[in-house]
Amino acid sequence: MHDSSRGVRGAAGGRRVRFVAAYLSTWGGYRITPAKDVAAKFKATYKETPNGGVPYGYAVGEVWGAVLKKACDNKDLTRDGIAAALKQTTSASTDNLVAALDFSKPGTPATRQVYAATPDATAEGGVKYVKPLFEAPEAKEYVAPHQK
After folding, report:
1. Cα three-residue angle 141-142-143, rounded to 5 degrees
2. Residue 130 and residue 61: Cα distance in Å, rounded?
3. Angstrom distance (rounded) from CA 98 to CA 52
4. Cβ burial, residue 106 (10 Å; 0-12/13-18/19+)
5. 54 DSSP 8-state letter
6. What residues contact residue 40 under an 8 Å CB cut-off, 6+ apart?
7. What confidence tens digit (pLDDT) does each residue in 81-139 have?
8. Higher-pLDDT residue of 54, 66
9. C-alpha–C-alpha distance, residues 134 and 44, integer Å
């Protein structure tokens, strides 16, 4: 992980923050084209300052789109059919807006990868990336409470 010895003041309400582990891409997007595309579409439509909720919401829509496509392929759009399609989803991709997600193992995190970013009041969205998607050894070894 990135560790700034000075920290960043101001971007986190006046407190010093060394780094942030983010589960999603933000506006800076670490050169991720989909993040830039989502930002451009948002800016073209709204006057508000963008925040992390927009790329997250877009990514969630992409994931549910993949699950619903699987349910359609299975010809079962019932509640049980959609739940089954979710469990069959082993690699829901959002073009790196968030890490690829695997919902096939109940009780297990869908991903263990994160981006590393640091708060930056001058950066669009308030954070600057310092590391692309990665999986820390601790995350890899972690056993979730309901993991089988």
Report:
1. 115
2. 26
3. 12
4. exposed
5. H
6. none
7. 999 999 999 988 888 888 889 999 989 999 999 888 888 888 777 777 888 889 999 99
8. 66
9. 32
Name the H helices within the chain.
33-45, 53-73, 79-88, 137-141
Higher per-residue confidence, 54 vs 73: 73
Encoded tokens for 19: 């780094």
- In this model, does residue 2 exceed pLDDT 50? no
Tokens of 46: 């709204």
Are residues 121 and 6 in contact, defined by beta-carbon separation less than 8 angstroms?
A: no
**Count, residues in the chain:** 148
Question: Nearest CA to 35 among 58, 64, 13?
Answer: 58
pLDDT at 20: 57
Strand partners, 101: 92
* DSSP-derived pairing of the beta strands 127-134 and 20-22: unpaired
